[in-house]
Amino acid sequence: MRGFLPFIGHRLFRALIALWLVSTVVFVVMRLSGDPVPLLLPPDAPTSEITRVRHDLGLDRPLPVQYGVFLGNIVRGDFGRSIHFRQPAFTVVRGYLVATLELGLTAFVLATLVALPVGLLSAMKRNSLLDHAAMGVALIGQSAPTFFLGILFIMLLALKADLFPTSGRGDWRNLVLPALTLGAFTMASIARLTRSAVLEVLGADYIRTARAKGVAEVWVVAKHTLKNAAIPIVTITGLQFGTLLGGAVVTETVFSWPGIGRLAVQSIYNRDYPVVQCTVFLAALMFIVINFAIDLIYGFLDPRVRAH
Amino acid sequence: MGSSIPASVPTDAAALPAPTAWPRLQGRRVPWVTLAGVAFVLVLALMATAAPWLAPQDPVRQSLRGRLAPPTLEGADGRAHLLGTDHLGRDVLSRVIHGSRVSLVVGFSAVVVGGLLGSALGLLAGFGGGRLDAVIMTVADAQLAFPFVLLAIGIIAVLGPSFPTLIVVIGLSGWVSYTRILRSQVLSLRSREFVEAIRALGGSVMRVVLRHVLPNVLSSIVVVATLELARSIVLEATLSFLGLGIQPPTPSWGGMIQEGRDYLDSAWWIATCPGIVLMLTSIVVSRTGDGLRDLLDPTLRGSER
């Protein structure tokens, strides 16, 4: 276990730096995007009223001071008050977070549950009809634009076949199409990677040895293949989760899903800085935490990683 | 170590040949899928260039009498609309042909912006080492940690949607892969003896870069650039779909899909035609990237066998 603590420390440091960079970029971009006050008040509001609102929001202070206050507040979990909703930004975002997590987790679980067996089967029945069909579909899933995939699903499965509702959040039937859309890229990537990871392991000497000494094929796959193919699969799976969070912006817009992705897009149009900051920060935080966890798992699975 | 190198050895690369990737292209048979992919991109570029002559009609000419017409050889206005008309009576086929201009101009330019920036930063990180390297790679990590569509929306909301903004934003989103490749190449070359010899004999860093690093990574850059092209085209369409790309009435595939979204039930062709062309482009270009990668640089191969 020697060398593991410094490894964790190093990764943690990098994660914190990444978080700081993300919040700084968010601050800069949002402050550049113009004054929100005119949007909040009627067009004929008196100057004194404008000045008062600017003061209340802290927008009349010098930028470096605003930045300092911003960073200090973030550390305390305070993202300011939403200009549009007139309540703490974190409370607003938290209300939408559940919908995104529901969608993201469903998409992720769906993708993994389909992709792992398909990838494994494709590798074991290499060059079979099933392999070609599965990898063909995976290729399309990997390169098709998410928003058009969503539109296709709406058109074919919701409007033509009338199997699912076209938009909104409700029971499980509302969840199917958005989750399929959001998970398509992840599903395709994991399936392709699983196939190639398993193929690589199947060609290894120790698999031939295992077979030669009469180990049953089921056991060869279960014990020798899957365990050794796990490392690249775990890595890519973690990275995919981040892609999912980004894809949520588009998917939620297409399906009018009330999550933080759609909230962020609308808040940008409303110039509701605190909500945008809070959303992006939370999304980045989730991604960084997940990758940090993946790094740790990776470090456990493969001791060689710790040396670097 | 220096004593084993005779003083008469030319500093030229001829004496110390660096392995190049291009000849391998000749040595191997280029699969027809890859050839077809390259041909597809050429045809698309030709279509974009010749759009005003190829398109049967003016892509922005409206005809309220011929609105939402299904694909037909003789519409209400007496003209053929092979892919139907949209909600303003504009010819969908003509708009799809003209839309390829936005996709390709933004796509290719963004690849150039991202490639130049990423390569420069990769060289800096590799040769600079130390703190500079750490800073660049941390920023790269942070960029990967960012839900980029959100940042793009933010920047475009600030600067307003236009060709240059789109190109810079999409270009900025793709520099990391170039940086990684160049950096690792520089790191692996930097400590090699022939590089030390060049430096010891007075060769500049620039010489090492131009004669040894770039030829080595050229094929990798071509591969990454092809894959980035597919990504850039899709990202442009996504931004246009969200209303942040090229503004109407200029036809763009993403914008057309957005416009057709309200008519999925009654006039499916408005969104479906540009969507299928976009999807085909994305699939073919990224497949071609995969094919080039297998030909030029098998070591990059990770996701497929």
Give an account of the 3D structure.
The complex is a heterodimer of chains A (308) and B (305). Chain A is mainly α and 308 residues long. Helix content of chain A is 78%, strand content 0%. Chain A is built from 12 helices and no strands. Chain A is flat and about 85 Å long. The two termini of chain A are 15 Å apart. By secondary structure, chain B is mainly alpha-helical. Chain B is built from 12 helices and no strands. The longest helix of chain B is centred in the middle third of the chain and has 37 residues, at 92-128. The two termini of chain B are 42 Å apart. The model of chain B is unreliable at 1-24 (pLDDT under 50). Classes of the chains: A mainly alpha (308), B mainly alpha (305). The interface between A and B is large, with 53 and 42 residues.
Intertermini distance of chain A? 15 Å
The helix content of chain B is 55-70%
Number of strands of chain B: 0
Largest interface: A-B, 53 and 42 residues
Number of helices of chain A: 12
> Helix/strand/pairing class of chain A, anyone?
mainly alpha
Order of helices and strands of chain B: HHHHHHHHHHHH
Main β-sheet of chain A, in a few words? none
Uncertain stretches of chain B: 1-24
Head-to-tail CA distance between termini of chain B: 42 Å
Helix content of chain A: over 70%
Silhouette of chain A = flat
